[in-house]
Amino acid sequence: MSFIADLKTKRILIIGAGTTGKSVARFLESIDANFLIVDEKIQNLDGIEVFDSVPDDILFDLAVVSPGWRKDHQIIMNLLSKGIEVISELDFAWMLKSELNPEQKWLALTGTNGKTTTVQMLESILISAGVSGIACGNVGTTVVEAVTSENKFKVLALELSSFQIAWSSLPEYSAVAILNIAEDHIDWHGSFTEYADAKLKLLSQSTVAILNLGDPEVVLRSASWNGRKIFFGLATPQPGEIGLVEELLIDRVFVNSADSAEVIAELTDVRPAVPHNVSNAMAAAGLALSIGIAHPLVKAGIASFTLDKHRLETILSKDGINWINDSKATNPHAASAALLSHLSNIWIAGGLAKGAKMDELIQRTSSRIKAAIIIGKDGELIATALSKHAPEVQLHRITGTNGAEELMDQVVSCALEIASAGDTVLLAPACASMDQFASYAERGNLFKASVSRLVGK
């Protein structure tokens, strides 16, 4: 019996009623499968009742879990103790793909930062090359939606979080990329080692990996892996590497001989051409080249790509001051890249630190920080690190007790008072947003609205 036909005979539990759970429910509904949804926060999903606990009187045959759920959650532990099979949405999608579109290629990438930009850049390359493909996973479209789409995509470009990788074991990727590994989601994984191990687990599911030569954690932790390693970096590339020569991104991997080289793109094709975004372009190019896309088409895809909202987004330039929205910088590593992209920052920082430490961030970037405006539940972690490692930096604390909109108005008013020509007012919080905002997108949008109203008038 096929996997899909077998699903119709099972009683299936969907764990999580968010975006992932919703896509699984939609598919199961389309094949008239018998399923129930459990979620501790959501009570209704498009008219379907959502339970806050697993009913004791129903024996399930299979559970499909959304990636944000920890493996030691009591619901998960109870299901496993009863011998019920628990699989991830990613593994579920792979089983569907194996039946619905077995020739479909999966390219996967992960990293602490830059995932969304890189996977969208890869999608842009696929489009330029005329390849039927889509970016999915931890960005926009879920993997189940992409696999079951009527478009029958030939290539999926998957952005994968550490949660998704930790839960998954079945997919076999044509190639994978690891952009960087830095402290993040320690509250979920329990330690940096567990977090890093989740990222590196991706290597066990491919024979080709595009790896960041400039990231020590990636280089050291991948050393024992025996697959084909393709390194990329910002220096002149050696044979078998992707790198930078003057104003050109150069490929010395997917070429006719060890002595050969091909131009991937010009620096001016990468916008903005800041170091971490050039690295993103190299990773996207490496994945595209690994499945045979020609160099001129890779160049065209990179040149036509524009950054997503809330990622180094220039809102306004006025009176010699640049106002930049990088609300998606939700951890120290991302904030560091943003701070180092500008010379003199009025830095807006704080929120939920997710267990991350801030000392290394401040030590690395203090010369670029003129003043810091501190917000959020864990803002004092940043303030303490600044006082310790960069006492010369001005500190301004904004509490904003009357809601998110007023908070951001106070932040922007404060920045306007202390910024002068040559400064960049940078929202790159190094923290998640959910203590004061609905999402990083709301945080960024409110920042943009306040800048428009108070500065752009």
Automatic annotation (TrEMBL):
Keyword Nucleotidyltransferase: no
InterPro entries reported for this sequence: Folylpolyglutamate_synth_CS (IPR018109), Mur-like_cat_sf (IPR036565), Mur_ligase_C (IPR004101), Mur_ligase_C_dom_sf (IPR036615), Mur_ligase_cen (IPR013221), MurD (IPR005762)
NCBIfam families tied to this protein: murD
Domain Mur ligase C-terminal: 310-431
Classification of source organism: unclassified sequences, metagenomes, ecological metagenomes
Pathway: Cell wall biogenesis; peptidoglycan biosynthesis
Cellular compartments annotated: Cytoplasm
Domain Mur ligase central: 110-288
One GO cellular component term noted in the UniProt record for this chain: cytoplasm
Gene Ontology BP term (one): cell division
Protein name (database record): Unannotated protein
Coiled coil location: none
Cited PANTHER family: UDP-N-ACETYLMURAMOYLALANINE--D-GLUTAMATE LIGASE
Xref: SUPFAM superfamilies: MurCD N-terminal domain, MurD-like peptide ligases, catalytic domain, MurD-like peptide ligases, peptide-binding domain
Main location: cytoplasm
Record-level Gene Ontology MF annotations: ATP binding; tetrahydrofolylpolyglutamate synthase activity; UDP-N-acetylmuramoylalanine-D-glutamate ligase activity
Keywords: ATP-binding, Cell cycle, Cell division, Cytoplasm, Ligase, Nucleotide-binding
